[in-house]
Design brief:
single chain, alpha+beta
C-alpha cells in the first residue's frame, strides 16, 4: 500500500490541473471528469 502524502497530491494536481484527485489512506484516486463515465481510477506512485 503506497504511503503518499498531501505534498504528493499537491504536486500531482499542479501537474494535472484538469483532473480532480483525492488522497485517502495514503493512496491518490483520480476522479472521473464531469460528463464522462463515473469510474474512479486508482494510481500508485513509487516514491
Amino acid at each position: 500500500m503506497p504511503n503518499l502524502t498531501i505534498k504528493d497530491l499537491e504536486k500531482l494536481t499542479t501537474e494535472n490541473p484538469d483532473n480532480q484527485m483525492e488522497l485517502v489512506r495514503g493512496e491518490i484516486t483520480i476522479m472521473s471528469l464531469s460528463g464522462l463515465e463515473s469510474e474512479e481510477v486508482g494510481i500508485e506512485i513509487a516514491a
